[in-house]
Design a protein that fits this description.
By secondary structure, the protein is α+β, with helices and mostly antiparallel strands. The protein is built from seven helices and twelve strands. An eight-stranded mixed β-sheet has the order 1-2-3-5-6-8-7-10, with helices on both faces. It has a two-stranded antiparallel sheet with strand order 4-9. A hairpin with a 2-residue loop joins strand 2 and strand 3 (62-70). The N and C termini lie far apart (60 Å). The structure holds coenzyme A. Coenzyme A (COA) binds at residues 36-38, 65, 97-99, 104-110, 129, 133-136, 138-139, 142.
Amino acid sequence: MKPQDLEPSSITYHFRRPDEIPPKTLEQIRHLIEEGSGVGTSWLRENLQKAFLIGYAEHEGMVVGTSTHKYPKEGYRKKIEAATGLDLSEYLERGYTAVKPEYRGSGIGGRLIRGLIERSAGKRVYVTIRMENVPPLKMTYKERMVLAARFMNERTGHEIGVFVNQPPRRKMNAESCLEKNASFDLDFEEILSEKGFHQKKVTRGFKKGHRSPRTPWLTCQTYR
Ligand SMILES: CC(C)(COP(=O)(O)OP(=O)(O)OC[C@H]1O[C@@H](n2cnc3c(N)ncnc32)[C@H](O)[C@@H]1OP(=O)(O)O)[C@@H](O)C(=O)NCCC(=O)NCCS
């Protein structure tokens, strides 16, 4: 099916707590995530059952798209916090987003993530996305989530973006931020002034003698 052949009114959207979803539908959701999302799925069944809210789109009785607002695993959240300096303690995590390949590019993913946010009662939400994965990046920008920080997943070597619907607080102070060489896309001054620093100068450059001469780094000079 091509996106232009799809009659938008033939798609129905549902946003439900896991225990309100018929078991057969939940099974279809799980299959779609396993096939389509490319994310680790070892805890999938359990995570879906404990999720805050699950969104799914149906066409002719079949689940063709899904996305979930879930409670992040504490260990995973702490890893992101350690790598970025963000405080995500009160955030839900968007995850398990997948649309069947033949239904992609017709706005289903966007409607699902918008619907989840609208029904999550003002909750703070973050999502992590590989910075080279263009479709979810576009979809996420379009729904007005903003890039709060980026970090390297050292295990996989991928650069990961952390996107939020509301700006998070920062845990890390100015010195340890510099030490970690974390890169922040929100107003850098915010991090510094929170800790009583004022930003004097922020320079982007390339680290001398580093493995790759093109590895960018951030320096900043600060004063109290
Ligand atoms: C990400 C995903 C859920 C998006 O679903 P979707 O229903 O196609 O989303 P939408 O149609 O709302 O928006 C997708 C955007 O990406 C664009 N896009 C799709 N494929 C693209 C490609 N190969 N290159 C560039 N842009 C692309 C679409 O044109 C659209 O942008 P536009 O509205 O500016 O035209 C779907 O691509 C998918 O299931 N991908 C595999 C799983 C995945 O990556 N999940 C996200 C993990 S964070």
